[in-house]
């Protein structure tokens, strides 16, 4: 990475990076999962004067996952602060399977959060831990609690302490403004990391979560940039003639797959980031774009219209063999692997318009998961439980999400403007 | 897009025929074309400054009207496309011919063809479709004798709509190629 470091365009960034907090996104649950596990997250004792409601953040996280249905606070007739105070029979009567309780204490600037997770049916404690945080770290601490609780019950690693990148636009025609933001996975703590009067597209996280690759038209030509999220320093990675689009990091973080049209029509290329060497990996007189790496780094998914319309193909990088994967419908595009490598998520055009679909690679069976307006740009949570995407609501672009099984869904509307192209970060802790 | 692939060579053949037709009808035709180009209200985005550019490059001994036509950037700068198509509609051929004529007469002038799509479908794929649209216009110009070095294609896909809304009217306005001189 030394090559990169010497060429960071730090000065340029000063022009674009804004310290201002953009309006956060707020969660709206659009479909609950009728098989979700009932859980009660009791408001934490002695936490009323904190700037964040820890129990509410945990409850919202668990609900958004689609795995849990939190009990409303109004229905709680007891608010135990610890496992010793829990009368399990009361919670069983409310059909609650699991219970979370906690207490806040303070030592100077440091806030301690003591929390416990109880199995109501088995009448025993599953988890107990004390977490310390500053006032500014309270949301992070709450998401950490959500991760622990989620993993203890589901055996799946929680992805609540992750982040999302997304693009916003406002205005129309020549008076359009674009920005790239990073926010917590629940849409809060948003921070603008780039602003431009020219389009910004296709943000993609490096596997270590430290950098974003994206396409910016700021020179009035598309180019791929790589930006450090924390420092804002960045470098232009490509500026070939024609399209420079759809960057995708290899799982080892050393290579970027991308679509370039410098040789005529859009083809897939793989760039070695350190040396900037590029290698063309598709050869077809049609559109080849939207590459995505398999979790093992051995193959790429991509969209090609070589059959007449866009369909998903898989390229084995060692052999160069290409295999068409999608056969349902006449529009399947922008596929992404699930972390297990056995399932892909993609945009499918069917009777309901453009929707998120899941296809099992073994059986080839395609299932539509979303029922929102014009779904695009799917991005899979690092634990594979959720897919976030862009959709339309009331004429505005908003982010939406659906559980990988399609049972639960939510929206993340912004206060104003269009929001699109969400990219879910890898695990950050 | 299978249709499109066959339609493209067909469009080229048609454009060749059109060029041939033009050259046999002489100077009056050129004046007519300029008239058509200037008459559309879609030329409203043309600024007087842009119109004036290139005047100085005309210095040969042709008739005043001809020289004038060749020195002005045609006012209609946008052509529109059908859904999922890069076929150049016949109604825009006079406009393209006017641009081709202008570019041939002003070999030092260059143009960026900005390709755009409507918002339906995925963004990166639409970027490719926008490029295909602008590429169809580029080939049309090349067939009419415009030097490839004068023309550059930049696709914006669905990123720069001029009309918002989820309806065919907005979609139709956004499916376009713009001549940016």
Q: How would you briefly describe this protein structure?
A:
With 429 residues, chain A is mostly beta strands. Chain A has 5 helices and 30 strands. Chain A has a 5-stranded antiparallel β-sheet, with no helix packed on it. Chain A has a 5-stranded mixed β-sheet with strand order 3-2-4-5-6, covered by helices on one side. A 4-stranded antiparallel β-sheet of chain A has the order 9-8-7-30, with no helix packed on it.
CATH architecture of the largest domain in chain A: 6 Propeller
Q: Would you count the extended β strands of chain B for me?
A: 4
Strand order of the largest sheet of chain A: 1-29-28-27-26
Number of helices of chain B: 7
Main β-sheet, spatial strand arrangement of chain B = 1-4-2-3
Structural class designation of chain B? alpha+beta
How many separate helices of chain A?
A: 5
User: What's the gyration radius of chain A in Å?
Assistant: 23 Å
CATH fold descriptor of the largest domain in chain A: Neuraminidase
**Helix content range of the residues of chain B, please?**
40-55%
Uncertain regions of chain B: pLDDT < 50 for 5+ in a row? Answer: 1-64
Q: Roughly how many Å apart are the termini of chain B?
A: 30 Å
Keywords (chain B): Cell cycle, Cell division, Cell outer membrane, Lipoprotein, Membrane, Palmitate, Signal
Protein name (chain B): Peptidoglycan-associated lipoprotein
GO biological process, one term (chain B): cell division
Membrane topology (chain B): Lipid-anchor
Would you kindly provide a written description of the structure presented here, covering whatever features stand out?
Chain B: Pfam families: OmpA (PF00691). Chain B: Belongs to the Pal lipoprotein family. Chain B: It is a lipid-anchor. Chain B: Keywords: Cell cycle, Cell division, Cell outer membrane, Lipoprotein, Membrane, Palmitate, Signal. The complex is a heterodimer of chains A (429) and B (181). Chain A is mainly beta. Chain A has two domains: 283 residues, Neuraminidase, CATH 2.120.10.30; 121 residues, Rossmann fold. Chain A contains five helices and 30 strands. In chain A, strands 1-29-28-27-26 form a five-stranded antiparallel beta sheet, with no helix packed on it. In chain A, strands 3-2-4-5-6 form a five-stranded mixed beta sheet, covered by helices on one side. A four-stranded antiparallel beta sheet of chain A has the order 9-8-7-30, with no helix packed on it. In chain A, helix 3 crosses helix 5. Chain A starts with a helix and ends in a 5-residue tail after the last strand. Chain B is of the alpha+beta class and 181 residues long. Chain B has one domain: OmpA-like domain (60s Ribosomal Protein L30, Chain: A, 2-Layer Sandwich). Chain B has seven helices and four strands, in the order ααααβαβαβαβ. In chain B, strands 1-4-2-3 form a four-stranded mixed beta sheet. In chain B, helix 6 links the parallel strand 2 and strand 3. The longest helix of chain B has 24 residues. The N terminus of chain B is likely disordered. Chains A and B meet through strand 26 of A and helix 6 and strand 3 of B.
């Amino acid at each position: 990475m030394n090559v990169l470091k010497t060429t960071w365009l730090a000065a340029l960034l000063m022009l674009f990076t804004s310290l201002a907090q953009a309006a956060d996104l707020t969660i709206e649950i659009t479909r609950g999962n009728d098989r979700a596990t009932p859980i009660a997250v009791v408001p934490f004792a002695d936490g009323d004067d904190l700037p964040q409601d820890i129990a509410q953040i945990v409850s919202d996280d668990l609900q958004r996952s689609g795995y849990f249905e939190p009990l409303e606070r109004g229905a709680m007739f007891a608010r135990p602060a610890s496992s010793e105070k829990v009368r399990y029979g009361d919670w069983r009567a409310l059909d609650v399977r699991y219970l979370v309780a906690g207490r806040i204490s303070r030592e100077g600037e440091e806030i301690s959060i003591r929390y416990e997770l109880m199995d109501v049916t088995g009448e025993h404690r599953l988890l107990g831990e004390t977490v310390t945080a500053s006032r500014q770290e309270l949301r992070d601490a709450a998401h950490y609690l959500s991760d622990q609780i989620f993993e203890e019950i589901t055996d799946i690693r929680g992805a609540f302490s992750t982040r999302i990148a997304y693009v916003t636009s406002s205005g129309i025609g020549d008076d359009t403004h674009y920005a790239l933001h990073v926010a917590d996975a629940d849409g809060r703590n948003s921070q603008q990391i780039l602003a431009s009067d020219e389009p910004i597209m296709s943000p993609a996280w490096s596997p270590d979560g430290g950098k974003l690759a994206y396409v910016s038209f700021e020179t009035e030509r598309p180019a791929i940039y790589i930006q450090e999220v924390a420092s804002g320093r960045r470098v232009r990675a490509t500026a070939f003639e024609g399209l420079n689009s759809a960057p995708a990091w290899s799982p080892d973080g050393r290579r970027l797959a991308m679509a370039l049209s410098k040789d005529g029509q859009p083809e897939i290329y793989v760039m070695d980031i350190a040396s900037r060497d590029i290698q063309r990996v598709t050869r077809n007189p049609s559109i080849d774009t939207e590459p995505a790496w398999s979790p093992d780094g051995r193959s790429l998914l991509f969209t090609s219209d070589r059959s007449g319309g866009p369909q998903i193909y898989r390229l084995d990088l060692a052999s160069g063999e290409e295999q068409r994967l999608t056969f349902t419908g006449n529009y399947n595009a922008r596929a992404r692997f699930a972390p297990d490598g056995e399932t892909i998520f993609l945009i499918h055009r069917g009777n309901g318009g453009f929707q998120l679909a899941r296809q099992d690679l073994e059986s080839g069976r395609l299932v539509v998961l979303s029922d929102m307006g014009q779904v695009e740009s799917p991005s899979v949570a690092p634990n594979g439980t959720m897919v976030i995407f862009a959709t339309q609501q009331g004429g505005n672009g908003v982010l939406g999400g659906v559980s990988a099984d399609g049972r639960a869904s939510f929206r993340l509307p912004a206060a104003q403007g269009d929001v699109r192209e969400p990219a879910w970060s890898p695990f950050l802790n | 897009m299978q249709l499109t692939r066959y339609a493209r060579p067909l469009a080229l053949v048609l454009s060749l025929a059109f060029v041939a037709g033009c050259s046999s009808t002489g100077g009056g035709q050129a004046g007519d074309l300029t008239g058509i180009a200037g008459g559309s209200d879609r030329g409203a985005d043309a600024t007087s400054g842009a119109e004036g550019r290139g005047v100085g490059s005309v210095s040969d001994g042709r008739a005043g009207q001809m020289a004038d036509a060749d020195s002005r950037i045609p006012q209609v700068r946008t052509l529109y496309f059908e859904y999922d198509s890069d076929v150049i509609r016949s109604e825009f051929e006079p406009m393209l011919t006017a641009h081709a004529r202008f570019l041939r007469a002003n070999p030092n002038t260059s143009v960026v063809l900005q390709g755009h799509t409507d918002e339906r479908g995925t963004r990166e794929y639409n970027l490719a479709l926008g490029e295909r649209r602008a590429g169809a216009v580029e080939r049309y110009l090349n067939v009419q004798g415009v030097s490839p070095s004068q023309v550059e294609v930049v696709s914006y896909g669905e990123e720069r709509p001029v009309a918002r809304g989820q309806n065919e009217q907005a979609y139709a306005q956004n499916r376009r190629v713009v001549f940016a001189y």
